[in-house]
Amino acid sequence: MRGLHRYYDGTACPKGHKGFRYTYSDICIACTNHRKEVIKQKARRNEKMRVAKLVPISFYTKRDNLAAVSDLEELDSISKGEAKERTAMLKRASKKRYNKKYPEKRKAHRRARKLNMRQAMPSWETHANIALTYSLAAIAGDDVDHIVPLNSPLVCGLHCTDNLQCLTPLENMRKGNRIWPDMP
Questions:
Q1: How many domains does the chain have?
Q2: Given 54, 75, 96, which residue is the final one in a domain?
Q3: Residues spanned by the domain of 140
Q4: What does the pLDDT look like over 167-179, one tens digit per residue?
Q5: What's the pLDDT score for residue 116?
Q6: What is the mean pLDDT of residues 97-102?
């Protein structure tokens, strides 16, 4: 048996399998494969349970009205894109709760962002032009995004109308401060 990875001796394992065994451990290969399959099934079930806690009962209900899905088969019918969108909705609701719980941290973050915008605003730009862009976006239900991010590890843009664009909230979240034109 030297140099072989498995062997067959004709004896049954404690589970009754008569098949090949591994030479290094004398364990039945059928038992090992069964154990691997059980572990995979448990992992799939745990993943479904984890996702079930994140998925709202109805996608079109109020955004903060989140609850767990009771039927795991319902999770199989959810597409990958819909699951991502629902997860994003859950993150927004979680952020809303966090901001409500720690208003002083939110206030400090807002203050730092305003200061960053003030420092990034060139002298030729007027507040009225920028306010107009923000009001047009609000009417359309969009977010105002900086084409070149104000704060990024690689580049810092200006806070002016030439650097502003209107995006849907989902597109704006996807873009973050990682994407801009002519990026390296």
A1: 2
A2: 54
A3: 125-184
A4: 998 888 888 887 7
A5: 84
A6: 90
pLDDT, position 74: 57
Tokens (6 digits) for 160: 């002016």
**DSSP labels for the chain?**
-TT-SEE--SPPPTT---S-EETTT--BHHHHHHHHHHHHHHHHHHHHHHHHHHS-S-TTS-TT-----S-HHHHHTS-HHHHHHHHHHHHHHHHHHHHHH-HHHHHHHHHHHHHHHHHHS-TT--HHHHHHHHHHHHHHTPEEEESS-SS-SS-----SGGGEEEE-HHHHHHHTTT--TT--
15 in a domain, yes or no?
Answer: yes
Question: What's the chain's average pLDDT?
Answer: 80
Task: Answer whether residue 60 is part of any domain.
Answer: no
End-of-domain residue from the set 13, 31, 54:
54
* Domain contains 103: no
List C-alpha distances in Å: 165 to 48, 138, 171, 178.
Answer: 38, 12, 11, 16
